[in-house]
């Protein structure tokens, strides 16, 4: 099974399969509710839809890479997955999404109420889990991450259709919606293992840069992707009027006429046949897709470089490959 | 100012005004967001609407009553208020409410998205705050309370219009939606003060019983209240098809014809002119309002009795008076 052709996160999952069994068992145990059967129904729909479990894998890999032998990396990995799942439930309500991981969303199958309240339950369960290792620094990191995630989501709400949104604001949103949980996932692995500060920082940097690269790639694929490979339709973000990095770069280089086009289509949401094609032409004219790809590559390189501070091992090699794999999707 | 005519929670607020100033300052400081101004806008709308701040007062009173001299009861009181505020934001989305504390709700003034995400932010801020005292038992109590609250809300979602909902299920819902935060608020006051187990348990029991009495009184006022005094219209819960204690008691004593009436009006939601009057007649026929009042009184008595395990003081007297005051609204 372990061939070089397998994707790096699949090989991580194989290498850490004993730990992941523990994480999955803990998730099943803690998503239960004695009184409210609706909770495990909604949660199972999402948790068992076959997500990649990338974030808990990052926690397990970070802890093991730092030589951790105790039991609590499993709790922290489950915590991270619960926070992620809660966020997805609430995101789908906020975005009025109808599909997630190829299946109808919980807000569609049940209702918005269930998604909001079951999301709250999973947040609370995450906090119960993160208390169990009894490590105050871990609690600080994860509660800070939860605040950064929510702040990023609110910022996105106001910034998404505002043409003044620049690359700095985009980066804040991305750190909130994606990178904060990646960096917390890797950082707590090092903290629980008790490694020295420089290595903890390197793990944080890896997660932060990987998360940013991951989100930039996602936003780029929306304009250049092959929908059969990505499962996304080209132009979804354009139609939903989301200001992502490619468009931000094109707007920064726009003349008056182009600015008026973006204002009409993104800010006012007045879109007509042919607008997506025109948007793509403008992105190409200003080299915005190439520049976005270069940014994703730079964050990937940063992630890989930070791994040099950690001990050489098969796990470290896989984390480096994972960073390469994330950006490989846009070449 | 300090006359016997003042309500007990106003006198608590006066007695603890120095501590409450600290709580209010901390709430203002922590509801800020560097990046997302929408967050303090939404939060301020609710926080500054003049709620009674009953839950933080319970934490401050419990800690002081136990002789606590440190600074962290203020953090825990702010934590409890943030959890409460987050819950209100999400409740108003779930209930599609239009008014709260006599003002338009945040979901109406902004949108559901803002209420969901700002609520998440306040939950995260609450967890950051509760970590600061560095007390793991406090973290356990408050994260357990957060899970119980969310579980109770989900249970209510499925139980509210289900005629099989009995008094046991009602009590679980009430513990979740109201009593769990009351009992956590009082219990952490004792824990942070480091008093002995019997007194911690007494504080938990007081908060639990007070919270249950509080919610039963609220549900009873919905059927017997004077709308000018309570700000609620008689029959709101009936119109919203909420199965609360008075109706549960009437259903338990119903004959077949009465059962059919409750099935039509509550389960199916098919309500006609005169139905509320008929419902009130059935509640009176079976003595359901009197029996509900007796339950509220019994919980009040339990709350007062638990205070006997704590040292005699002005604060203890006020907590006893507070329990009497809660139930006095239905006589």
From TrEMBL, chains A, B:
Q: What does this protein do?
A: Supplies octaprenyl diphosphate, the precursor for the side chain of the isoprenoid quinones ubiquinone and menaquinone.
Provide the taxonomic classification: Bacteria, Pseudomonadati, Pseudomonadota, Alphaproteobacteria, Rhodobacterales
Q: What is this protein called?
A: Octaprenyl diphosphate synthase
Sorted UniProt keywords = Magnesium, Metal-binding, Transferase
Please give the catalytic activity noted in the UniProt record. Answer: 5 isopentenyl diphosphate + (2E,6E)-farnesyl diphosphate = all-trans-octaprenyl diphosphate + 5 diphosphate
Query: What's a single GO MF annotation on this record?
Result: all-trans-octaprenyl-diphosphate synthase activity
Q: Where is the signal peptide?
A: none
Its needed co-factors are: Mg(2+)
Query: Could you tell me which PANTHER family the record lists for this protein?
Result: ALL TRANS-POLYPRENYL-DIPHOSPHATE SYNTHASE PDSS1, GERANYLGERANYL PYROPHOSPHATE SYNTHASE
Give the E.C. number(s): 2.5.1.90
Biological processes, Gene Ontology terms: isoprenoid biosynthetic process
Family membership: Belongs to the FPP/GGPP synthase family.
């Amino acid at each position: 099974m372990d061939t070089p052709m397998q994707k790096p996160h699949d090989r991580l999952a194989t290498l850490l399969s004993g730990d992941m069994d523990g994480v999955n068992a803990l998730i099943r145990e803690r998503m239960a509710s004695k009184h409210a059967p609706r909770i495990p129904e909604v949660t199972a729909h999402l948790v068992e839809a076959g997500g990649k479990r990338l974030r808990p894998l990052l926690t397990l890999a970070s802890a093991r890479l730092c030589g951790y032998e105790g039991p609590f990396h499993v709790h922290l990995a489950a915590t991270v997955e619960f926070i992620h799942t809660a966020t997805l439930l609430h995101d789908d309500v906020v975005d009025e999404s109808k599909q997630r991981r190829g299946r109808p969303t919980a807000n569609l199958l049940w209702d918005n109420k269930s998604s909001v309240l079951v999301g709250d339950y999973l947040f609370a369960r995450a906090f119960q889990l993160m208390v169990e290792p009894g490590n105050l620094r871990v609690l600080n990191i994860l509660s800070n991450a939860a605040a950064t995630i929510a702040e990023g989501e609110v910022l996105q709400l106001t910034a998404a259709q505002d043409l003044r949104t620049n690359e700095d604001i985009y980066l804040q949103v991305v750190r909130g919606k994606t990178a904060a949980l990646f960096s917390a996932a890797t950082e707590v692995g090092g903290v629980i293992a008790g490694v020295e500060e420089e290595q903890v920082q390197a793990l944080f940097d890896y997660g932060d840069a990987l998360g940013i690269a991951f989100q930039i790639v996602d936003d780029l694929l929306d304009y250049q992707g092959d929908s059969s490979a990505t499962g996304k339709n080209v132009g979804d973000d354009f139609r939903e009027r989301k200001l992502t990095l490619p468009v931000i770069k094109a707007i920064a280089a726009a003349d008056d006429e182009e600015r008026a086009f973006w204002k009409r289509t993104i800010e006012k949401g007045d879109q007509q046949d042919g607008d997506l094609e025109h948007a793509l032409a403008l992105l190409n004219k200003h080299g915005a897709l190439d520049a976005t790809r270069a940014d994703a590559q730079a964050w990937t390189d940063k992630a890989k470089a930070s791994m040099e501070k950690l001990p050489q091992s098969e796990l470290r090699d896989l984390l480096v490959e994972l960073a390469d794999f994330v950006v490989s999707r846009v070449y």
